[in-house]
Design goal:
- The structure is a homodimer.
- Chain A has about 325 residues and is an alpha/beta fold.
- Chain A has a single domain, classed as Metal-dependent hydrolases (TIM Barrel), CATH 3.20.20.140.
- In chain A, about 40% of the residues lie in helices and about 15% in strands.
- In chain A, the strands form 2 sheets. In chain A, strands 1, 2, 3, 4, 5 and 6 form a 6-stranded parallel β-sheet that branches. A 3-stranded parallel β-sheet of chain A has the order 7-8-9.
- In chain A, strand 5, helix 5 and strand 6 form a beta-alpha-beta unit.
- In chain A, helix 8 crosses helix 10 and helix 10 packs across helix 11.
- The first copy, chain A, is globular, with a radius of gyration of 18 Å.
- At the A-B interface, helix 5 of A face helix 5 of B.
């Protein structure tokens, strides 16, 4: 029945251009989930969406706004890419729970409860201590569940993530991260988190961002695919997708802004260091979405069959999207 | 040398009127610290200050804006009350550390790192778990120290308060709370906190808000003064003042707003309950600032001498204000 295979990259934040949309389509991406805010407030999100509306107008033969899973099917039929909006922070709602419904009306389908720092909702993975989901966080989770906005804990700390999984009545997502059994870093996830995520019907999108990769920019395709195989052994292949975290084409001022926002006067280097503060170089087998073809080969070489490979490269995310609302 | 005795109430949030300013002056209050924000953002603070500027214009024979300790002296000489501004939340700076300098320029002298909930800076006393001062909190403390804004931890949780005391290079304040050895409630403070506060040169302003009082509205003057005496035994009389938390004249919609802000769609009753959600009735010996005369009698009756009584009723806060900047 499911003879159609969807390709989905469930996290990109590129310096958007016709060229990138063409690469995505050439890589057969039926859907991408793109980031609309890292530190932006509500009004800045409106401006970012205005910019996207211009892209949708200018490149209508390549992209259109995605609202739900049917748009993934439509994109596949029409040879376009459906673009789904997400927030990597709760900064756009500030301290106002009523804005959750407003961002939903703007078409936001994913929201992280935290970026790297403590938020009003939960604790980010760069904080020293993790107090879990806060009083406001509990209220916002209820509201996100009611509306059908996916809780994304990619940048959150361990206890907060477990809390979110337990509090949410809907499966949550970790759209872009890797397991820490493969590479230990603040952004990667423990086996405890991965298992709880899968048991609750959630998804992890494996990240291709070098700071999340073993051997960083020198990570091999084989090592990456072995990691996916071990994750599949741990939690089952159905809970695995790709969220590449591609940041193609941005100047280094953008990664500096991602790390520092407006929260500090002392420069923070995040996953980098003073000596190595730039955007890291992508592995040569995943410079952009064309790397999906390499992933396909790599996954098959490591022993995944045709169906499993297609599930990982998009069908699992498609099924997750199908379950988002009601 | 210090023959002048100052009277200071270091926390009031009344429904301001000429009548209240007159009561304050009649009670010989040379200074009050008033709350400019509970949940307000930066622009709303500007509006609240506009309102205050109108009060300063209309009631210039009673009040004027206080900037530093010299204005307490001036108020005393001129038989007026100097009004110092403070924030009971960090909501006005949001996620933008640059706004700390802007609120300082607006004349804000005190800022709580949290109201009752988790903030971007620290944990409030109503949260289940206290992760302490956050990454942004550490940066904001440095900035407050640099500018001379007092860190106020009245509504913060235990670890966060200890962290703030340790991180701040300046003494901090708990402008309105009581010791939990006398009355155990989320807003009152442990001996550990009180001792650390005093050892670092900080001040506690004892609160007259019924939810912080043993026997609440029925608390006796004697019990209150005994509590001050025990606190003085614990931390020394020099670290003790009054921060009455008077909320005279507000309708109950105000306490509902204080508790709920915009963070929840489920009604929160804070220190009250569904059956008892109103502003609590003040004890009959402290209906307003005229109660300072009762406090004076009560403190002397409990055994404080003239000097100690004057220190508690204002001179200690005056000395604290003297040390705020440089």
């Amino acid at each position: 029945m499911n003879s159609i295979n969807y390709r989905i990259d469930n996290l990109q934040y590129c310096n958007w251009s016709e060229k990138i949309f063409k690469i995505n389509r050439k890589a057969k991406l039926d859907a991408i989930h793109v980031t609309i805010a890292y530190h932006e407030d509500f009004d800045e999100v409106l401006k970012n969406i205005e910019t996207w509306n211009k892209y949708f107008n200018d490149f209508r033969d390549l992209i259109f706004p995605g609202k739900n899973f049917k748009d993934i099917e439509k994109a596949h039929r029409e040879n376009k890419t459906a673009v789904f909006f997400g927030l990597q922070n709760c900064s756009p709602i500030g301290d106002n729970i009523n804005l959750v419904e407003e961002i939903h009306e703007l078409g936001i389908l994913f929201m992280q409860l935290t970026y790297n720092n403590q938020s009003l909702l939960a604790t980010g993975c760069y904080e020293h201590t993790d107090s879990g989901v806060t009083r406001m966080g509990k209220e916002v989770i209820k509201e996100m569940n009611r509306l059908g906005i996916v809780i994304d804990m990619s940048h959150s700390a361990e206890k907060s993530t477990i809390d979110a999984i337990n509090l949410s009545t809907k499966p949550i997502a970790i759209t872009h991260a890797n397991p820490s059994f493969w590479f230990e870093t603040k952004r990667n996830k423990s086996n405890v988190v991965l298992k709880a995520l899968a048991e609750s019907g959630g998804m992890i999108g494996h990240s291709l961002y070098p700071h999340h990769l073993k051997d960083k920019s020198n990570c091999t395709l084989k090592s990456f695919c072995e990691m996916i195989a071990r994750t599949a052994d741990l939690i089952g292949v159905k809970h695995i997708g790709i969220g590449s975290d591609l940041c193609t084409g941005h100047p280094d001022t953008v990664v500096e802004w991602m790390r520092n926002g407006k929260w500090t006067k002392t420069k923070d280097y995040g996953e980098g260091s003073k000596e190595n503060s730039s955007f890291p170089k992508q592995p040569d087998w995943f410079l952009d979405a064309s790397g999906f073809a390499n992933l396909e080969k790599g996954l098959k070489n490591i022993g995944f069959n045709e169906k499993e490979t297609n599930d990982i490269l998009g069908n699992n995310w498609y099924n997750f999207y199908k379950g988002i609302k009601n």
